[in-house]
Fold each of these.
Amino acid sequence: MNPGRIPRLPAHPLALPNILTYARIAAVPVVVGLLFWQSIFAGELWLRWVALAVFIAAAVTDFFDGYLARAWGQQSSLGRMLDPIADKLLVAACLLILAAGTTIRGWALLAAVIILCREVLVSGLREYLAELRVGVPVTTLAKWKTLGQLVAIGFLIAGEAGEKVLPYTIEIGITLLWLAALLTLYTGWDYLRAGLRHMIDE
């Protein structure tokens, strides 16, 4: 046995990569609750820093769950199903609560709507193609899209609290949100084109 080789561990529901994905899902109501308390109930600004810390921890698990699953040979159907769901829950919930608290407002709401509509579209396409036993691999650009969304949302979660440390924090977040929305449109068209090709072939 090669001592430098990482052993392949059996994939099961309580494997570490899956636990990290569960943690990302569990972080969603925590972040939403903190932002709701601060924005809707006019809580203290330090709540935004706590929400940001939980959000960053959740976002980091998005890298490590996939990396560890590949490195340890613990890739599973459960992990492949839950990973994109966890991402979408985190992004969608944060966008909605940020819009409710008016951190995202005006024309910036359109960027949030674009992102949310794309996620619904891709989820529907994946379900349709799964019935045809057609896999839709996640592209590198789609991964950058997710990263862009998470960074933008991070700035927006900091919001007013962040403005006291870094001026124009909200404006930076809105700009990044628009860039993420443009990437979202492009990658969404890629998925739609793949889906249409299979529909036509059928």
Amino acid sequence: MVLSMDEIVNAICLHMAERKGVRPTDVNVELSWEEDTGYSAEVWIQGRSQFLVESNMIEAILRYLHSEYNIRAYREDIRLDLDEEITAIVNQH
């Protein structure tokens, strides 16, 4: 299974909204990949910016998989990939 960049953004929006007590529509996310730091996401909530590292992004994806697809996955089942856009490849057992 492959999650699109939009689904990764949605996963982070839902995750951060729940953690910060705001609506998912109040969360803006920009994904990026840098050779030095790998995958990251910059998140804006109520005018404040916060950076998430790859492990934070995967945590949000795990919760999204469970809530939206009823899939229980583990960290080692998810790999972020970069082709035309950032995607998440999920190995299902």
Amino acid sequence: MNTEKPSIVRRLYDWVLHWADTPYGFTALVLISFVESSFFPIPPDVLLMALVLAAPTKWAKIAFACTLASVAGGVAGYGIGVLAWDTMGMWIVENLVRVPLTPVDGRMDIALPAYMTKMFGDSLGGSYLFQVYDTWGAWIVGIFGLTPLPYKLVTITAGVAQLNLPVFIITSIVARGFRFFVVSYILFKVGEPAKAFIDKHFNKLTIIFVVLLIGGFAVLKLIF
């Protein structure tokens, strides 16, 4: 008999999911979408999928609420980056997101993976995240907002990098909205079989989409 205690992440996952079976599922989705954008480890997709499957005709309302709450939480994360990077911000990055920080040019920064700097070279703008912000800006927010990469990491660091706030908000709305609306619509049209497919392949599909998107713009840049 296996008596091993589930990990804290697994227990949080189950806690998030249990709200789908209560009258407070929608409220919980809004709150979780908000806090996930700055510190909470479980993405709102878990509860969003359960709620859409339980009420398919409300898929658009659920996706809309999830998007707005997530972006609002992103603005809160941006504020942490602006006002509390040296205290709360760095603690979240190192202890919750589990990304190591290293001193660069007088402030703590994040080293990019070696494979990324090797693949993209000088086009990145540097080997550290804040250097890349100077070149790519909103693209970083869009990629983190759309893919399984931790959105909280980019909301906080965008504040540190002083990315233009309206640009940050608009990019977040587009990226988070695309993610949540696509997932919700697929569940609405296909139902339970889509959930298994999304659970299994969502990470791969979003990463492939981003690679193709960036590749397309790189080709256009070479042409023009």
Amino acid sequence: MIARAAAILRVLKDERSGLSLGQIATRADLPRSTVQRITGALAAERFIIQDPRGGGIRLGPELGAFAEAANFNIAERCRAILNDVTRDTGETTDLAVLRNGGMIFLDQVPGLHRLRTVSSVGDVFPLTTTANGLACLAIMPGDEAQEVILQEQAGKDIAQIQDRLDEIRSTGLAYDREEHTPGISAIGFAFRDLSGSYHAISVPVPSTRFDENAPRMELALRRAEARVTAEFGLRP
């Protein structure tokens, strides 16, 4: 029962406008009668709702509350790691989560330099021009990553981005050299939490000291990635 409910929720996760019972049954590979019974139970708990615009069944507000709680939990658990990266590099360290096609900042430890980068918690950055976004794209299944890239880079040649993702997959680290913000460069890595959400830890710095500090930042981030995997059991 739980596995089938999870399969239905995963199908709905990628369809924000909603699906019919028949569509859910087809995509989850379940009998329609089973889907009808399970969706009834999920609706009673507000895990799913009927889309008010008539688009079908979609995820409900109760799951949003769980997502917010999970975000807080991840931020709390990663705080010590962010502190250590900033201590080892002297630079600002960010934690972000992928939500609705953008990287949302969950937490930040400010750097120790007078000249430092600062972003506000809740800020939303794109994926294809940021270190944290590219890192997340690189650990996605290829077809999922391509769909996101096409949405963000509509009408543009995406071959170059695909080549960069291949490089990130081989090295484990993503780089932004003033692609998102002039004068600021960054390095980051991504991981998935136990619910499957994509997160990234990144270090943005003024470009004037990026090359000099890059080896130190790379080492600190690789240590952070090992800790995320070992301490939390999260998938890199």
